[in-house]
UniProtKB/TrEMBL annotation:
InterPro entries per the UniProt record, alphabetical: Pyrophosphatase, Pyrophosphatase_sf
Gene3D superfamilies: Inorganic pyrophosphatase
Enzyme class: hydrolase
Entry keyword Lyase: no
A Pfam family recorded for this sequence: Pyrophosphatase
GO process annotations (BP): phosphate-containing compound metabolic process
Protein name: inorganic diphosphatase
Gene Ontology CC terms: cytoplasm
Cofactor (UniProt): Mg(2+)
Source species of the chain: Torulaspora globosa
Signal peptide positions (record): none
SUPFAM superfamilies linked to this entry: Inorganic pyrophosphatase
Record field: transmembrane: none
């Protein structure tokens, strides 16, 4: 067996050991406002996906942990709740109804495994790029590998770059990454390799985030940095800044200003049993296609 193969096996073993201590406890009905997906630690206690899953940023190997919120090709807008105790994963709601993203032809739902980097926080009180402030959430992460990951999965990923989305006037970074156990992980070291191995995915990602709210009647999103992706070094620097902001939040320095950010963590001996009910039916309109008009030559 080659040295590379042995190193690969050792890497996968480390990933398994670091992530198998986390489990999910599901309650309520999926695709309804009652759904809750709580983090369960190895000792049985309930913890927070936001605060108790370690980021484990390794700047040398360019890896970190990701919490998967939305599996690729699905529509339900699941996210870590900033407001609920222990920050479970819930389905976002608007005007009392659970939210789904539209299918924008030719894409079905989310085009990546979508989630967040734990123990990071985009500070809404601090202006950074172009004077924009953060969106009060953990950093978003798009995992571009071939496997469809389930909601609540804790996945070690290799960081490849980032895109600075401007959403409703707030800075909303999208970190681009690939699972370290993906077959292409050892062949992709940065954005140039992404273009070579997965041609078109970066352009598709930018266009999806630009357009995904248009079918709901909102304007197209825009991007900082002239819509260009940021490389690995800049992305790791952003992760470190947001990790520092999270530490400030958890220390309580900004707690009085940010009452909407719940910082309840494990350590209180609280346990919880699963209580998952049958899922609600997904509304039929979620499966419909949305088509966007394009400017044609000569028009």
């Amino acid at each position: 067996m080659s040295k590379i193969s042995l190193a690969r096996i050792a890497q996968l073993k480390r990933v398994l050991i670091s992530t198998r201590k986390f489990h999910s406890v599901e309650r309520g009905s999926k695709y309804s406002a009652s759904y809750r997906n709580y983090l369960k630690l190895a000792n049985g206690e309930i913890g927070s996906y936001f605060h108790d899953v370690p980021l484990e940023l390794d700047a040398n190997n360019r890896t970190a942990n990701m919490v998967v919120e939305v599996p690729r090709w699905s529509n339900a807008k699941f996210e870590i709740s900033g407001k609920l105790e222990f920050n479970p994963i819930v389905q976002d709601t608007k005007k009392g109804k659970v939210r789904f993203v539209h299918n924008i032809f030719p894409y079905h739902g989310y085009i990546h495994n979508y989630g967040a980097l734990p123990q990071t926080w985009e500070d809404p009180s601090r202006a950074s790029v172009d004077g924009l402030k953060g969106d009060n959430d953990p950093l978003d992460c798009c995992e571009i590998g071939s496997k469809i990951l389930t909601t609540g999965t804790i996945q070690k990923v290799k960081i490849l770059g980032s895109l600075a989305l401007i959403d409703d006037g707030e800075l909303d970074w999208k970190v681009i990454a690939i699972s370290v156990d993906d077959p292409l992980a050892n062949e992709i070291e940065g954005l140039d390799d992404v273009e070579r191995k997965l041609p078109g995915i970066l352009d598709a990602t930018r266009e999806w985030f630009r357009n995904y709210k248009i079918p709901a009647g909102k304007p197209a999103n825009s991007f900082a940095f002239d819509e260009e992706y940021r490389g690995i070094d800049d992305t790791i620097a952003t992760i470190k800044v947001c990790g520092g902001a999270w530490q400030t939040l958890i220390d309580g320095t900004l707690l009085a200003q940010e009452d909407d950010c719940q910082v309840t963590r494990a350590g209180k001996g609280i346990t919880m049993k699963p209580d998952l009910k049958p899922p609600h039916e997904i509304p039929s309109e979620v499966n419909k296609w949305s088509f966007l008009y394009r400017d044609l030559p000569g028009q």
